[in-house]
Amino acid sequence: MASRQAARERVALLVDVQNVYYTVRQAFGRHFDYHAFWRRFAADREVVMANAYAIDRGDPKQRQFQEILRGIGFSVKLKPFIQRSDGSAKGDWDVGIALDAMEAASHVDRLVLVSGDGDFDLLVERLRERHGVTVEVVGVARLSADSLIRAASRFVPIEGELLL
Fold first, then answer.
1. Distance between alpha carbon 124 and the CA centroid of its chain, in Å?
2. Rounded distance between C-alpha atoms, residue 20 and residue 120, angstroms
3. How many helices (H) and strands (E) does the chain have?
């Protein structure tokens, strides 16, 4: 029994890179600090899954950023770059994130989702209700969907140490 109590909490870290990039830039004119995030949410936990979902533009700066993420400990999942008529980009990772979260649910105690996208509210509810997983949502408070904030076990605003 003592060894069970000493076991580290198992965690999955799922980062919607496009969402966090645009919301942090819009709200603060700054960047998200992935190193600080890792220190805060992976510390003293067993990281079972750590995925950063991004788009692949194929440019050197983007590749360098992806290597930084890999160096921190993330698996980088890429989709082709899609340019919208308004100039914004879409990585279209919602389904992939949801599938990975559901797959991780039976292997973790806690799932940390970095996104403010309200499309994830039902996913977060299901993870909590059907799988008993604690779900922390990390996002820009004023740009995160109220429904997602309500669905989370805990909402952590991106501010302070999580900003570069």
1. 12
2. 14
3. 7, 8
